[in-house]
Amino acid sequence: MNQDQAKGKWDQIKGRAKEAWGVLTDHDFKKAEGSVEKLYGVIQEKVGETKEAIRTKLDKLHAKSKNGSCCG
To answer: Among 10, 22, 50, 70, which is disulfide-ready with 64 (CB 3.0 to 4.6 Å)?
Structure first.
């Protein structure tokens, strides 16, 4: 995977996280340093959900976006 592909995936994850948890800020994503695992920790601190709940919610949003039923 090249750098553009990795950046694209991170941008997708950020978008899904912002959709699920509107309280997340750009600073929160900077703290995650491009790491999904670190992002789970940041979200846990911010909203108090478990890692598994966070992962499940992001996976559901990803599935919706792949099926074309996201965002409209």
So the answer is: 70
